[in-house]
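My main concern about presentation is that the manuscript never shows what a single data entry looks like. In essence, backbone conformation is discretised, so a fold becomes a row of integers matching the chain in length. An entry of this sort, consisting of the sequence and the corresponding backbone structure tokens, reads as follows:
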Amino acid sequence: MSTPSHQALADQYAQGVQSLLTTPTKARGKRSAATPEALAQRADNLASVAAALSQETAAHLDDLDPDVRLGAEQHLLAQAVANLAVADYLMAAAAQAGEVEGKPPSRRSTRALPDPAPALDVLATPLAEAGAALSPRRTVGRPAASTATREELLAAVDQAIEAVVAGAAANGRDALAGILGLDLALLRQAASMVSQELAQLVQRVSEEGFRLLSKAVAFVVQAYDNLLAALGQEVTGEMRRFLADWLEQLRQGEALAGLLAALFETAKVQDRVRSAVEASSASPVVLGQVRSAVAALPQGFAARTRLVGQILAGLGVLKRIPAARLPAVEAAVAATYVGLLGYVLFVGGDYVDAPRLERLGRVPGVAQTVEVGLQGNPL
């Protein structure tokens, strides 16, 4: 469950984000603009709260309650959305303050910054409640008269795997669209970067006199840290091992859906499920219950990755700001894109029960759902 300290931090962080994002950077009517010095100090204060909240949230990823674990993951994604919104705001403020070359964003364009309100709503939701909304126990219907044959169950498994692969490919394509135009050497560097290296980039930006810009980059790094925390240390290590070479294959024109099917080893999963179904003596009623559980898995994947689009929107805004072409900013943004792609791939692998991928293990995948359900255990 959410501890009082965690929820208090989440509330403090959300209030700080809302307060900062509504601070004018140019005088409007009777409202005076905040000075760059004042904005930088407020950004530092918020960054301290953001770092503490991320650490506190990540500690709940090992909670005994599976709903809390899922809720902690969603809170980390919501923090990434909000941190990128702050980065967008500070980058625009840096341009208005004349820290970087290029035309400052217009008032109209700054109004079009991604709205962090949905993410802040997630942060206002206790961890167990946020996770329960995504839990298989909540999303799976159990019709009283539902029955199925073995072939109908196997067909549902194939459809669920195809839907998860398609969903992962759709999210992955959106992430790839943001990074495939970047230099391959930069992408390789981004795929292997650790937070300390990015923090050194922030320090260099600050030392070069870019006060607000350095604060903006620091919040991009916070978003990257949120994604890595959501993945966990073991999964992050595996992601770095294969993703750099995988990105090169994608740049050479390999189809993402085909690469995902190979990465997830879907044929092996289907063989594993078929063996379990053929060896089972489960009744048509049990087979129907398992089919319902399997059919709900793509819906769970879509719900679990719904914040990915908001993270992509925040990164997209950053890329359109002239300062994004500075090496430190480009590296931080590229690393965050890579981290987001890794999150999508490993969550998809979780739902498919991909044999070769390190599991996040926060939900049962297709194969595990079938095997547990056929034994008559609750789904």
